[in-house]
Amino acid sequence: MFEIKNLSVNYGGIEAVRDISLSVPEGSIVTLIGANGAGKSTTLRTIAGLVKPRSGRIEFMGEDITGKDPAYIVGKGITLVPEGRRIFPDLTVLENLKIGAYLRSDSIEDDIEWVYSLFPRLKERSWQYGGTLSGGEQQMLAVGRALMSKPRLMMMDEPSLGLAPLVVRDIFSIIRKINEEGVTILLIEQNANMALQTADTGYVMETGRITLSGKGSDLITDEGVRKAYLGG
Amino acid sequence: MADFFHQNLSYFLSGISVGGQYALIAIGYTMVYGILRLINFAHGDVFMCAGLMMVYLSSSFPFFISIPLVLAMTVVLGFVIERVAYKPLRSAPRMSVMISAIGVSYLLQNAALYFTGGLAKVYPEIPVLSRSVQIGGAATRLVTLVTPFLTVILVVLLTLLIKHTKIGMAMRAVSRDFETSQLMGIRINKVISMTFMLGSLLAAVASFLYFTNYASVTPTSGSMPGLKAFVAAVFGGIGSIPGAVIGAFIIGICENIIKGGASIFGIPGSGWTTFSDAFTFAFLIVVLIVKPTGLFGEKSVDKV
User: Fold this and answer.
1) Nearest alpha carbon to residue B108 among B51, B57, B42
2) Nearest CA to CA, how far is A189 from chain B (Å)?
3) What are A169-221's pLDDT values in tens digits?
4) Where in chain B are the domains?
5) What is the ipTM of this complex?
6) CATH architecture of the domain with range A2-229
7) Who among A48, A91, A102 is closest to B186 (CB)?
8) CA of A96 to nearest chain B CA: how many angstroms apart?
9) CA distance B162 to B170
10) Using the beta-carbon criterion (under 8 Å), do A48 and B183 form an inter-chain contact?
11) A70 to chain B: which residues are within 8 Å by CB?
């Protein structure tokens, strides 16, 4: 469904991503784990169209989307929940959801209700400004906002960052639920344990390269992965 | 008090009127700043160009054609300036964009100098606006009365646009976060163009009102009202539309009260008039020292 072939990206003067290839089958959860600065975020930002690749090819549903602008890519059904949530602080919760559906011209009422049913807390806070929400609520809003574009592939950049362990648990169970409703997920995480438990397939990224890949359940028991990312 | 008010009625009236004109210009500064963090120094000159367009167009077309034509052409001018002078510098340091803005300002002034030959052009008398009226014993033109109402109506419409439409929501989003706005599928260049076009439209409206009072247009006619409107925007808290409007009315009124200072402070002659411009800029300095974020400014350290 989604495929990256030999992608290289220069970012901030360095070769942040070097010749990586990965594929995301329809309906799956795929995770990309690795240390800070391994090139995970750059990979997602390149897919979303925020950064232009140096070489390589990105394919979605059989179409070459390499180097297209972000609006085109969102329109095709790929969305990114950015690192640090980046919700709009002076838009209300409801407006944050509406802006997630910016490119859509069909009715969005049902989807707003769907997001509210996934995150009842957001419904309670519908008229509050985004900036007044707690970190966990902001993450829910960021996910809800991304869902409003009716994505087929949702990419998430460090959804657990800065959240309390209990909230992280909630977020991951929501990720599974969204996946069960038919949205394919590409997730990057420093919280490798949680990510590998959730994912069908995992890729390990180190200084711009993919060094290992396999089933999530296999990687979690892999000696090297355990040592490097799971604390022994 | 009633006596004081009565004596100075004409100054209050022209203060409110000039304030409204400054407000319409100030909105252009404040909106562009809100979205690009750019002081668009060319904005006052766009206003002047609208004045000149009216001079030339009204000589060959009736008002019902020339007025909409001036509005449309000023909007196009604002759009083109952004595309040519600012868009290519989108990822450049802010200082470069500001220098580009100063360049555009001089370019417009010099182009105007070329077309007018440096002569002051007589502004046409727009039928309804230039009609003389008497209010409470003070003689004035109808434009004085029309300005504050028109300003308020336009500000209300603008606020509705920003608060309740899709493009308005996109403008608010882009002014906060370019990158995340792009992730939502918003084409930020469109939103930025829209902002410049709205600012130019309001500047064109202001030019009809302002030049009807001042009767002539020169290539530098935009500088002073431009600067005053800029001061108003800073005073109100740059980036804030209500701030700019309130700031503009306060500055317009203060300026004219000072012009009427002779009767207020019992000083013979027109001794204070000379200082009315100085007041505005002294006021800017005081605002920058005492409250740099202005009346309604966002509490950000990211300031000019």
Assistant:
1) B42
2) 20
3) 999 999 999 999 999 999 998 888 889 999 999 999 999 999 999 998 888 88
4) 17-223
5) 0.93
6) 3-Layer(aba) Sandwich (3.40)
7) A102
8) 9
9) 9
10) yes
11) 182-183, 185
